[in-house]
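Hey Z.,

So I finally got round to the pyridoxal-5'-phosphate thing we talked about over coffee. Here's the setup:
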Amino acid sequence: MYINENFIKLPQSYLFSTVASKLKEYRAAHPDAELIRMDIGDVTLPIASCVTEAMHRAVDDMSKSDTFHGYGPEQGYPFLREAIAKTDYQERGIDITADDIFISDGAKSDLGNLGNIYSQKSIIGVADPGYPVYVDSSVMDGRGGELLGDGRWSRILYMDCKPENGFKPGVPKQSVDVLFLCSPCNPTGTVFTRDELKEWVDYARRNRSLIIFDSAYEAFVTDPDVPRSIYEIEGAKEVAIEIRSFSKTAGFTGLRCGYTVVPAELKGTDREGNEYPLRQLWNRRQSTKFNGASYIIQRGAEALYTPEGREAIKKNIDTYLSNARYIRQAMEKAGFEVYGGENSPYVWMRLPEENDSWALFERLLSEAQVSSTPGIGFGECGAGFIRLTGFNTPENTRKAMDRISKMNLKRENGAEDDFSSLNDVKAIKAIDELDKLTESLGIK
Ligand code: PLP
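And the result:
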């Protein structure tokens, strides 16, 4: 038996394990320090009571022969697919039907599994920095090519996201087969406006590309000019699959439920140019390799579409958003260069003149007892940045920001000198030297 050697090519993902071991070490060395976790990508607010009540009822259903549920439909129960189609799409003027929707056990599995239905030779395009699953799952499927010295893969197109483009990738010059787009973005918290997303849809239509639109954080969008769904853009149903999750929206990170939208209009071609609906392929894939999400969890997710459920989601999202907004404002004031934190739970930031994400991580940990996620772990364009999240409690968030703000960042990093320090320092040194010279020469 030969193994899939793509797995050995893949470097270990050190980011989260390294953060965890550094925090463990820190705790062991400073048992009295009150560490505040601002790196958490998990939610902290509990599940809404209307959801837990619905799940209790579903558990009771399982105990009676006339309401017992065994294997469910692989695509998901119609009661949930219909609630999603109606509430998340039709009521917002988007023509998506229950037939287009596939219930999943969360976004991560589908992001990886979709690789089953497009050619192994597909060229993949990803934003750098980005959610690591896009690259790693492509590499596992043999689409990476070779790992290069800079940590990038030879067959993957990386779309650099930097301060110059506001951490938003622009459409590539070359043709790419499959594009992973994430808005609101993890880790940078940036979002595509309607016009920007239209450019991507137009690009995909021109180049016959597939867009995999990861909108796991769509519920955080409050700006009316920012689309929550790619299908708000005309023509997107012909080029895009949309992936959504109840994880961050409704606290389902432990329950596991999400959905993937594959519209009937979306088609791919074989080598002879014959067209095939992707929905047919995805349905075939799912009915072979997936036996459906749990009935109990799907009943819980259905409760999110009741008035109480929607109210509960809004409350959770408002809490996380107000944390993120607070972080953004406090960190801007403290002298950081900040992105995200609006329409997103993530804040992406750096100190001018600090190019090392790990150094900044260490500094916040040792001087403020605040943990962060080093941006370099999300791609080489993340160098120098760190990610903070709005998922902690409002009290801890405020306390953490207060501690960072008191860190004397300005003096140590030259922020007080408007970051034009280098020339100023040289000028001051020159004046000092001139003073010394004139003094030694006895000139007054
Ligand atoms: N997509 C993005 C951008 C994420 O950040 C995450 C989780 O952090 C996921 C997908 C996975 O979500 P799920 O919990 O539904 O698997």
